[in-house]
């Protein structure tokens, strides 16, 4: 049995908190590097395999789609096999599949391995959220969730930056292979650092009961709206990064692949934003912070419409800060709002998160093909306006009786 019920919850500032957050930071780093390291390579794929920008986005959209669907299966399995074993297996398999993908000569074969990578990677995201919800004290969950998402941001940045630079000086295959190697190291760090679950007891899964364990979350007054936020926020965000490379490779900017990859350094802003916003939301209340983070993204996308490169980069920074801040708030809210079957609630949230990346990320290619960057920016704005309206609705949501004390700002 993976767990011993009755132990104290993990408090912020303790050695156990540092071990846990380090392990999950490494896990988030690995997952996002493996998934999103291909993003700056889309123009390279389009050229090397003679495919369109929308088709090249399948290198990212396809694993996001398979990951999204697999979450709904893997999440219940973690109730049987345990949180840590499922997450560790996910990290090792996704790293090995990434290394195998660089050896595939054909576009369709490469996409098959990318799809399998998405399935393998599905064991980490929802289970990590459930683990933190079970093991962390309420006062620590906002910061710990923010640090997990910070690992996502750093992994996304390093994966993209490294892939872009190596592709410019060697080949995209070497770049993606290096990312796979780093993911293996992160998996080892995770295995040794993460404490075993202590507030989780494995139980036999009755598969006929699984639909109900997912379905009852849609009867809550707030969870369905939080689920929809993940779809809209991630869908808009990934569109920006999917197609900004195509814009900046063309005149008048004509940036190199290395320079395009370097733009992803702004993910450092996301790393800081997720942790800071998570902590602020824990103190002031999530309903007071979420809508402000989303509104910031609308200001950022407006800046990218400028013809000045410095303003475009500034806009990308603002969009990144907005997304990671909003995602930190919404994802930690899921863990606090779902009183039972937390892994399933997290799985629904992340299923829609990655479906947003897949479906809306590829849809953005249609807008880019027909209206250029203004089309992508307009699509983003439409998605974020909807997200803003939902956040305003959530700001008026009454907290559950069990959480009223947790929502009171700390002096």
UniProtKB/TrEMBL annotation:
Membrane topology: Multi-pass membrane protein
PROSITE patterns: MFS, SUGAR_TRANSPORT_1
An example Gene Ontology CC term for this record: plasma membrane
Family per record: Belongs to the major facilitator superfamily.
Higher taxonomy: Bacteria, Pseudomonadati, Pseudomonadota, Alphaproteobacteria, Hyphomicrobiales
Top-level taxon of origin: Bacteria
Location in the cell: Cell membrane
UniProt xrefs under PANTHER family: BLL2771 PROTEIN, INNER MEMBRANE TRANSPORT PROTEIN YNFM
Protein's UniProt name: MFS transporter
InterPro entries reported in the protein's UniProt record: MFS, MFS_dom, MFS_trans_sf, Sugar_transporter_CS
Listed CDD domains: MFS_NepI_like
Protein species of origin: Methylobacterium gnaphalii
Keywords associated with the record: Cell membrane, Membrane, Transmembrane, Transmembrane helix, Transport
Transmembrane stretches, start-end: 21-38, 58-74, 86-105, 111-133, 145-166, 172-196, 223-244, 256-277, 289-306, 312-335, 347-369, 375-394
Molecular-function GO terms, alphabetical: transmembrane transporter activity
Domain Major facilitator superfamily (MFS) profile per the UniProt entry, residue ranges: 16-399
